[in-house]
Structures are given as C-alpha cells and as structure tokens.
Design a protein that fits this description.
A hairpin with a 5-residue loop joins β1 and β2. The longest helix is centred in the N-terminal third of the chain and has 52 residues. The chain is α+β, with helices and mostly antiparallel strands. It has three domains: about 160 residues, Beta-Lactamase; about 60 residues, Helix Hairpins, CATH 1.10.287.130; about 160 residues, Heat Shock Protein 90 (2-Layer Sandwich), CATH 3.30.565. It contains twelve helices and 14 strands. The strands form four sheets. A five-stranded antiparallel β-sheet has the order 2-1-5-4-3, sandwiched between helices. A five-stranded mixed β-sheet has the order 7-9-10-12-11.
C-alpha cells in the first residue's frame, strides 16, 4: 500500500517529538537522581560536622566515651535527619551507635582500613553498602575525629537511600503526566501543521491530474511565501503558460485548418467547374491562373509552417557569413518591379555604399522579401518605399518604410502574432497567410537581433530590424561613427 506524504511527514515529526521526549525524560531522571544524591550527601556532611564538633567536646585523647552524655544529643540529631550515627576507633571497631540495641551489626563489624585512610584525607562519602555492612544501598559520610594529639576515631553518618527511589519515582510520575500532555498537544499540532503543509501538494496532485485531462483552469491557493508557496506560485505560472499554449495550439490548428481549407475549396471548385463544363473554354485560362495562385499560397503556407516548426524546435541552424545586404534588397525590389510600376512608386535610399552584415543570407532573404512584399501591398498608389541603414560596431539597422494609411495603435502590438491580419489585409491581401511577420521576427531573433514597427496613421509604416555587423571594415562606418544615408530616418535606431 502506497503511503501518502501526509502519513510519512506525520510519522517523521511524531517520531522526532517522541524521541525528544524520551531523551529529555532520561536526562531529567538522571539529573534528578544526581541532584538528590548530592543534596543528601550535603545534608549528611552537615550532620556529621555538627556531630563531630559535639563529640570533640566530650572525648579525650583516648576516645573515652561518656555514652550517657552523648546519647541524647546524637540520638536527637540522628532522628532529626533520619540517619544512623556511629563512632569507631582508629582500627574501625564500632564504639558507639545511635541505633541502641539494633546496633549489634555495627559492633561486630570492622570498617576496612582503606575507608579510614580515605577519611583521614578529610572526608569520605559513599553511596553503597559500606563494604557489605548494609544489605541495602546507603549514603554514608565519614569524618575523622581529631584532637591535638591526632586522630582518635572516626564518625560515620549513614542514611538509607530508599527516599531517593521514592523521590525519583514521584518525579517520574510528574514527568510522565507532563510528557503525555506534551505529546498529545504536539501530535495534535503536528497533525494540523502537516495537514496544512501538504494541502498545496494535494491540490497540485489533483490539478496535475486535471492537466492530464486537458483542463488548465485549476489554480493553487498560495498561503505562504516559503518554498511550498514558491512551488505553488511556479505551479500556477506553469498552469497559466500551459493554458496559453493550449489556447495558442487550438487557435493555430483552427487558423491552419481555415487557411488550408479556403484555397483547397477554391481549387476543387474551379477544377470541378472546368471538368464538368460549368466553366467554358474561354474562361479556363483565367480560372487556372486563380488555381495556380491558390496552389502557390498553399506552398507558401506549408513552407512558412515548416520553417517555423524548425525554428521553434531549435532545428534550424543559422549559417552566418559576411555579405552585402544591399544586394539582397536590390534583387528583391527588382522582383516586385511589375507591382512597383503599376502603383508608380518612388524607391528611395538605395543609392548608398555596401552594407556588410554577418548573417545567414538565405534566412535574411526571407526577412527582406516578406517586409518588401508587405510594404508593396499596403503602399498607396504614387507613394514611396524608403530604405535606411544605420551601422555601429555591433549591429546594423535596416529600415523599410512605405507611405500609406499606416497602422492604428491597437494593431501595432499584434502585427507579429501568428495568423494575425489587419482588417485592411483581409480585404487587400487575398493570398496572405498571416505568418510572414511572425516568421520575420523569429528569424531576426535567431540572429540575436530585434525588429520593431513604427507607424503614423495617414502617413507611413516602417519596420526596422537589426542584425550583427560584419567584422570586416564596413564602408558604412566613417572613422568609427555612423554614416547617414540619403533619406535615412532621423530617429535613433532601435536597440537590439
């Protein structure tokens, strides 16, 4: 069975909390036991000091004891501290014990000399059985009884450490109660915190399933700015991009279908009309020319789509070489000679020197052809086509301007969109496919350049593109400064 990230995260957090509680509990109990031992030995030490001082006032150099004089005070001191006080001579033999008749075990017991030697150093403390004197562990403190002549005996104070077990047990109960409460609160908090943390992930999982079904409308709520919040934001951005791409894909398919269907319908209709005799022999040439134009239109559409697909897939490689772009422009202008003469156009700006660029000649020919074709379509009869050039050390700027109606402010941002046609083009350009300017921008971007459009309604429309300048000496450069050509646009060239 596959575990959810919620259960995994909750188990990890719960394990960490439980481990911390166990470790803290262990440390707490060790500290408690050590604290009790230290305090108990301190109490016994104080008791031993008081008892020794009292004993020193009642004994002589031979440790002759007046038990009747010692007993009341030492017994009271023993009872007050719940201890056993006994005295031994220098050989470890018990001389006096506060337990009275119950002190037979002390009288028959001789304290090892090793303990006495340690006591001579100042004080001896122990938490044990005092060399098997006691059957159960005791806390014991031993202090030497010294007079002016030297050590005359040793005073022992012992207490059963049963109290330690009781004390530690009580503290353990208190700790367990607190631990259970802390664990309960911690598990509840961990549950809700974990639930809150994994909620965006669950939403992303559900949204991803919808994405797989083609639904890109789902968005993830963003409640934080941490890594999960950033992930949710990235997920929403991805969803937005996928939605836009899906919309573009559907629009692209619809446009392509329309662009293919229209000429194919025309071709089929005219051919059927010729075959069934609806179109007479005297009209066949005219309609065959229309069919030829539609076939060329289909060819341009397919070629443009293939080029775009290669560009977008990264398969189209730019083969750059230094060449004179002016030659391509002049050749392209000559190919439109018939249309130029029909509209009686004035061609300006071609009376200049070489303009050397470092680009792909074939791809740049497509750029020039599409821009000139677009300019010739929309130039007004008796108007002009104007070419301008501006060169710096890195980029060469080429401007193609045509007089005419121009573009509106609403049209300018969209002229480079795929399959976009202005209202005028729909009436004037029956053969356009709406991919020319999009292809132009894609090719220019492949070269590391840029293209912009400037237009003033009722006056002109101008496209200005940039491509890398050839590294060879360019006649357009005069002492490192830009050379102005006749009829060049006076506005500063666009920056790539």
């Amino acid at each position: 069975m596959q575990k959810s990230i919620f259960s995994k995260y909750f188990r990890v957090c719960a394990s960490i909390v439980l481990s911390v509680v166990v470790v803290l509990g262990t440390l707490f109990m060790l500290f408690t036991a050590r604290y009790f031992s230290r305090e108990k030995l301190s109490l016994l030490t104080n008791c031993a000091s008081v008892a020794r001082s009292y004993v020193l006032g009642k004994v002589d150099s031979r440790l002759l004891l007046d038990r009747d004089a010692l007993s009341p005070t030492l017994t009271a001191l023993s009872d007050a501290n719940d201890t056993v006080i006994f005295l031994t001579d220098t050989n470890g033999k018990t001389l006096y014990c506060t337990e009275g008749s119950s002190c037979e075990v002390h009288r028959t017991y001789r304290v090892p000399s090793s303990i006495l030697q340690k006591a001579d150093a100042g004080q001896y403390t122990e938490a044990g059985r005092l060399e098997n004197l006691y059957k159960t562990p005791h806390f014991t403190v031993c202090q030497p009884v010294k007079t002016a002549e030297g050590t005359v005996g040793y005073l022992f104070v012992s207490a059963d450490n049963e109290e330690q077990g009781v004390f530690v047990g009580s503290m353990l109960k208190i700790f367990l109660i607190c631990a259970v409460a802390v664990l309960a609160v911690s598990f509840i908090l961990t549950y809700f915190v974990t639930l809150k943390m994994v909620r965006p992930l669950r939403e992303m999982s559900a949204a991803a399933k919808k994405f797989g079904q083609g639904d890109f409308t789902t968005r993830i709520r963003i409640d934080s700015d941490d890594e999960i919040g950033q992930l949710a934001m990235s997920f929403n951005n991805m969803a937005r991009s996928l939605s836009e791409l899906e919309s573009m894909r559907r629009s692209f398919i619809a446009n392509v279908s329309h662009e293919l269907k229209t000429p194919m319908t025309s071709i089929a209709g005219f051919i059927d009309g010729i075959l069934d005799g609806t179109i007479g022999p005297d009209q066949e040439r005219h309609y065959l020319r229309i069919v030829s134009d539609e076939v060329k239109r289909l060819s341009r559409l397919v070629r443009s789509m293939l080029n775009l697909s290669r560009i977008e897939a990264g398969e189209l490689k730019v083969q750059t070489t230094p060449f004179n772009i002016l030659e391509i422009i002049c050749e392209t202008v000559f190919s439109f000679e018939q249309s130029i003469e029909q509209k009686n156009l004035d061609i300006r700006g071609l009376d200049t020197d070489k303009v050397m660029v470092d680009a792909d000649p074939d791809l740049l020919h497509q750029v020039v052809y599409n821009l000139i074709d677009n300019a010739v379509k929309f130039v007004n009869p008796g108007g002009y086509l104007e070419f301008s050039f501006s060169v710096d050390a890195n980029m060469t700027y080429v401007g193609i301007r045509n007089s005419g109606e121009g573009l509106s402010k609403e049209e300018i941002p969209r002229v480079f969109d795929r399959f976009y046609k202005t209202d005028r083009s729909r009436g004037v350009d029956k053969n356009g496919v709406g991919l020319g300017l999009y292809l132009v921008r894609s090719i220019i971007n492949l070269h590391g350049g840029d293209i912009i459009v400037k237009s003033v309604q009722g006056e002109y429309t101008e496209f200005v593109f940039s491509v890398p300048t050839a590294k060879t000496k360019n006649p357009a450069l005069v002492k490192g400064k830009e050379k102005e050509y006749p009829n060049q646009n006076k506005e500063a060239p666009p920056q790539a």
